[in-house]
Amino acid sequence: MKVRVNNIFESIQGEGRYIGTPSLFIRTSGCNLTCSWCDTNIKIKKELTVEELTQVIKDSTKNTVVWTGGEPTLQNKPISEVIDKIDRNNHLETNATNIENSFLEKFDYIAFSPKEKVDAEKIHGSKLDTEYDVKVVTDLNEVGTNLIEYASILMPLTTGNQERDMKCKKRVWKYCIEKDIQYSPRAHIDVWRDREEKELKKH
């Protein structure tokens, strides 16, 4: 059994509850959504056996493994096998389209990032024992507005226009204070900008 992988790298968690945590990121290949803003070329892939991927993780000094994508839940069986063989804190980043408690509860923490309201509703109905957040990317005007009521974390939309993005950050910041919701920056983007992927692989 093999895991389709886009890339593997050590870096700092740049967003969400565990921002700032040194981690090993396993970016899986393949996704069931086609979001126009996705920052991952999910067509690039290599396949690693469960044993090979297990060894990669064991060779890393990082105690936290972040399974991201793509969409990791599309490969729940081989990923489950890997998790059973390692002694690490396993975090999952998922679009919440595949809610299967037996798989999700293998993780110590889950960051759900739903794109549709129906998926956000499924999260709260799943009765997970695992620690999790619902992270919504929004500009509070158009993007993500139908999901805000489900969010435990809000992250301002990034467009690449610095003036517009700063206004959005301040708007979301103030909203989070008013509504008592956790605010999340994208620290890795703030540091590396468009050189993110290249620099992460080098450092």
TrEMBL record:
An example molecular function term from Gene Ontology annotations: S-adenosyl-L-methionine binding
Organism placement in taxonomy: Archaea, Methanobacteriati, Methanobacteriota, Methanonatronarchaeia, Methanonatronarchaeales
Assembly information from the UniProt record: Homodimer.
Chain positions recorded as S-adenosyl-L-methionine binding sites: W37, C38, D39, G70, S113, P114, K115
Keyword terms, alphabetized: 4Fe-4S, Iron, Iron-sulfur, Lyase, Magnesium, Metal-binding, S-adenosyl-L-methionine
EC primary class: lyase
Organism listed in the record: Methanonatronarchaeum thermophilum
Keyword 4Fe-4S: yes
Pfam family name, one: Radical_SAM
Protein name, per record: 7-carboxy-7-deazaguanine synthase
Residues that coordinate or bind substrate: I12, Q13, G14, R27, T68
InterPro entries linked to this entry: 7-CO-7-deazaguanine_synth-like, Aldolase_TIM, rSAM, rSAM_sf
Record's cofactor remark: Binds 1 S-adenosyl-L-methionine per subunit. Binds 1 [4Fe-4S] cluster. The cluster is coordinated with 3 cysteines and an exchangeable S-adenosyl-L-methionine.
Family stated for the protein in its record: Belongs to the radical SAM superfamily. 7-carboxy-7-deazaguanine synthase family.
Cofactor: Mg(2+); S-adenosyl-L-methionine; [4Fe-4S] cluster
